[in-house]
Automatic annotation (TrEMBL):
Keywords: Membrane, Transmembrane, Transmembrane helix
Annotated transmembrane regions: 12-36, 48-69, 81-100, 106-128, 140-161, 215-239, 245-267, 279-295, 301-320, 340-361, 367-385
Cross-referenced Pfam families: MFS_1 (PF07690)
Top-level taxon of the source organism: Bacteria
Gene3D superfamilies, alphabetized: MFS general substrate transporter like domains
Protein name stated in the entry: Predicted arabinose efflux permease, MFS family
Organism, as annotated: Pseudomonas mandelii
Length: 395
């Protein structure tokens, strides 16, 4: 599929702008409860699980909306879709800041779920695919490189703002940043795609055609990975503490997850661009399995290696989530394909933390590690047996 790619300068500006907005979007949604859950629960006079559960609800909302978002980007490009994310996320944060009970709080997270559907990785990947076609692989890697600093930027900022001004003001400031910084960046730097007379017909035909069986296997692979990634992201500190690792050391080890993801993406960008994305995905899921199993003995040095290895594997799996569908299924209707993949992925991310927290409490850390390793093992089997590493014609 032919596309009019941005110039080199426009491309750098586009990736920088979209990367900054990814940091803002992730920091004001997915990473928000890690810092604000306790002050919100005290303010609303409710439990922390009830507060954190709103994030799971918002992920379900995002999953329901993802295919529609993808098809919209295929038809019209991502400029207005991404711009709408700034408005929706700002509206959700403003609503949250005025919540005095769980009802309004969950309404706010419903709006944030809509904003996540139109503003996180899948919408960004689909936008790049629509603009650059098969040449979007490097751009997807560049986007994840910048966005990989989301927790590094967001958590200190959120903690400082909450300590100084409270969680309500923190939400209002985040909303203002979305409107004053995020929205103009989307409007000024994301171009509209070049219209093509045949494109609407292709999209309409593909929307009613039988699904490519590879799409189901790709969705299964990334859903299994997302389940384990989400579970470990929420339960890692508790898992380390259950092995009698000190709280300070557990937090230090957990903080290495983000930098490990960024380093792995840098290595992929520097040395892996000639490798087929399916092999990148295979390497990523194997690294996640090795890292997960290394948590088993509960030794500090092994846990250090485990976190770095799992973080690296997760980092390149994020890239593969955009590049594998792009390479195997082509860039036509990439948004629709990514949206269909995103639905089960987001549902898995919503249910995994609670399910695995229950397993950790009831069965203990070793059972949790073996269960999660088994889930990733199924994903590895899919990657090695159902996804062929060949490069089709780049339609």
């Amino acid at each position: 599929m032919s596309t009019a790619a941005p110039t080199t300068r426009q491309h750098a500006t586009l990736i920088g702008s979209m990367g900054c907005n990814q940091i803002l979007a992730w920091g004001s949604t997915f990473y928000l409860p890690a810092v604000l859950a306790e002050p919100v629960s005290r303010s609303l006079n409710t439990s922390v699980p009830a507060v954190v559960g709103a994030l799971s609800w918002s992920l379900l909302v995002a999953g329901i909306c993802a295919p529609v978002v993808g098809r919209t980007i295929d038809k019209h490009g991502g400029k207005w879709v991404l711009a709408s994310s700034s408005l929706l996320l700002a509206l959700g944060l403003i609503t949250m800041s005025f919540a005095s009970g769980l009802f309004v709080y969950y309404i706010a997270w419903t709006v944030l779920g809509l904003g996540m559907a139109v503003g996180l990785y899948d919408a960004g990947f689909a936008t790049l695919g629509r603009l650059m076609g098969a040449r979007a692989r490097g751009s997807m890697t560049g986007l994840t490189l910048i966005a990989g600093f989301a927790s590094t930027v967001a958590w200190p900022f959120l903690a400082s703002m909450d300590a100084s001004h409270g969680w309500q003001t923190t939400c209002r400031v985040l909303a203002l940043i979305h409107l004053a910084v995020g929205l103009p960046l989307h409007l000024l730097t994301v171009p509209l795609p070049t219209p093509r007379a045949t494109e609407s017909a292709k999209i309409a035909k593909a929307s009613y055609a039988p699904a490519d069986p590879r799409l189901a296997w790709i969705a299964l692979l990334f859903t299994l990975h997302a389940f384990v990634m989400s579970a470990l992201a929420v339960n890692l500190i508790a898992l380390l503490r259950s092995h009698e690792i000190s709280a300070a050391m557990a937090v230090t080890l957990g903080a290495l997850m983000g930098p490990s993801q960024v380093v792995a993406r840098l290595l992929e960008y520097a040395f892996g661009r000639s490798a087929h994305p399916v092999w990148i995905a295979r390497l990523g899921i194997l690294a996640c399995i090795v890292g997960l199993l290394a948590l088993g003995p509960g030794m500090v040095m092994l846990s250090l290696i485990a976190v770095i290895t799992f973080g690296g594997g997760n980092g390149i799996m994020t890239i593969a989530r955009g590049t594998v569908p792009l390479t195997l299924l082509g860039s036509t209707n990439l948004g629709m394909h990514l949206g269909l993949i995103a639905r089960p992925v987001l549902v898995a991310q919503a249910v995994a933390p609670m399910a695995c927290a229950y397993i950790l409490v009831q069965l203990g850390p070793n059972w949790l590690i073996w269960i999660m390793a088994g889930i990733l093992g199924i994903g590895a089997l899919v990657a090695f047996t159902k996804l062929r590493a060949f490069t089709p014609s780049l339609a």
